Amino acid sequence: MSIDSIADAIEADAGEPIPGLREGLEEMRAGRSGRRYTPEQLLVRSARSTLGLSQQAFADLIRTPVATLRDWEQGRFTPPGAALRLMEIAVRHPEVVRDAAA
């Protein structure tokens, strides 16, 4: 199956043209993957998501600048060990983090 026929089928299903679709499919065929995430990034995002908080609210909760939290979530920097442990606790026991913040 050609890239064009796959893209045509996807766009027909979506009901509209999708900018960059053919280029993305071509990258997949060539083995070039998209964005990669580290386990630490996923852990930080998961912790925030589990608590249902915005970046600002979560940063306030853990007493960290929101810019630092964004850096962690975007993979520019890895959180220190204590912050990673806090993220693990937030994912496994969100009620503990909520109680501690109250």
From TrEMBL:
<dbReference type="Pfam" id="PF01381">
    <property type="entry name" value="HTH_3"/>
</dbReference>
<dbReference type="GO" id="GO:0003677">
    <property type="term" value="F:DNA binding"/>
</dbReference>
<dbReference type="InterPro" id="IPR001387">
    <property type="entry name" value="Cro/C1-type_HTH"/>
</dbReference>
<feature type="domain" description="HTH cro/C1-type">
    <location>
        <begin position="44"/>
        <end position="79"/>
    </location>
</feature>
<protein>
    <submittedName>
        <fullName>Helix-turn-helix domain-containing protein</fullName>
    </submittedName>
</protein>
<feature type="region of interest" description="Disordered">
    <location>
        <begin position="1"/>
        <end position="25"/>
    </location>
</feature>
<dbReference type="InterPro" id="IPR010982">
    <property type="entry name" value="Lambda_DNA-bd_dom_sf"/>
</dbReference>
